[in-house]
Amino acid sequence: MKTDSVHFELERVFDVTELFVEYDKTLVDLLDKHAPWHQVKVRARPAAPRFDAECRAMKVKTRKLEKTYRRQHSVQSEKVWRAQFKNQRELFQRKFIDHWSHAIDESQGDSKVL
Predict the structure, then answer these.
(1) Could you give the number of structural domains in the chain?
(2) What residue ranges of the chain have pLDDT lower than 50?
(3) N or C: lower Cβ tally within 10 Å for the chain?
(4) What is the pLDDT at residue 97?
(5) What's the domain range around 21?
(6) What pLDDT, on a 0 to 100 scale, did the predictor assign at position 111?
């Protein structure tokens, strides 16, 4: 049985360095078994053209209010945060609609431009 052999090996190792080596080896074996290494390609996505300074400022304010709510857990801070979040969503939706409405108008019926 694998666990018995690991337990036996640990019992006969007394040197701290050897213990760390054994610990490291065990962790690597577990990671290789349950989460094998593989390469991931990360691609940078360009920012949405509609996401401007106004959107960034709105998002910063919303996150700040969320952090305040999570620290305080008060009804008032939750209301303020949720109202700000609603305003943020409305702004993002308005920017999205305005962006695509303008893009459609500019394309003059040519769907390839979109």
Answers:
(1) 2
(2) 1
(3) N
(4) 95
(5) 2-34
(6) 80
